Amino acid sequence: MKPKFGIVEFPGSNCDHDAYYAVKKILGYDAEFLWHKDTDIKNSDVIILPGGFSYGDYLRTGAIAKFAPIMEEVVSFANSGGIVIGICNGFQVLLESGLLPGVMIKNESLKFVCKDVYLKVVNKNSTFTSKIEKDIIKIPIAHGEGNYFADDDTLKSLKENNQIVFEYVNKNGEVDEASNPNGSKLNIAGIINAKGNVIGMMPHPERACDSILGNIDGQQIFNSIVSNLKLLEIY
Amino acid sequence: MYKATVIIKTRKDILDPQGKAAEQGAKLLGFSNVSGTRIGKHVEFFVNTNNLEEAKKEVKEYSEKLLSNPIMEDFEFNLEEVDET
Predict the structure, then answer these.
(1) Which domain CATH number covers A177?
(2) What ipTM, to 2 d.p.?
């Protein structure tokens, strides 16, 4: 049996098929879509909340998605230790749902930014990064509201508990203002919850999996997840 | 029946890129006295009850749970008695 990724589809999700393609067609794992109105995660081992503009992102990004029927299942799956990865809009949904701390505000530049960025893998021991060999990976971003904000106490505890997983850096791995594409506090690109089973990240690893696109740095994120499922002796 | 007006403001310690951009525009237009532009949201709706306390409670919960995000926004609301929508 192959590990199964459940990919949530909200109205307005637009990276759901990219995620499906990456985990199923490229990496060879099992994958199934989970409709937002469903109340069953169909025995998924991992849940992906994909990128896009759920419910048009009206009001605030992810604000309406958190009330989708499937989210109740996702929250209880996460609370019982299930692995959840929120990418871009999925990260925003995790923040609104309270599964991760903080909020996302508009990019400081007010521009939608779509480009490859360099990420420093700050925490290499997490469920999502343990198979990443490189210190710096290149992953594309595409968002208008990726400016991560949290109060100073929250940022301090994220740092102390090693919950900051990815930081925006330059090619040499240095954290600087010029490499921060959106104004995020501490150049934060991705964080995990205290338990380490939920990650939110603005960059799109599913868009960096197919070698024909010239970059497969995203693969090791999904492979890390699966290798940790194996450690849990599920597979 | 009441008509509710909710004003949602970005908290003062949080950067408001929209407000900042609008203010840059204000400077370009020559409004030299303008400063501290902050952009928020104005939401209007009706509350179908004649009980003021009940209306207040519902508007407050709606604002807390959905209309605003307490991490980055504050809200205030006003209720006005109206006959019909």
Answers:
(1) 3.40.50.880
(2) 0.82
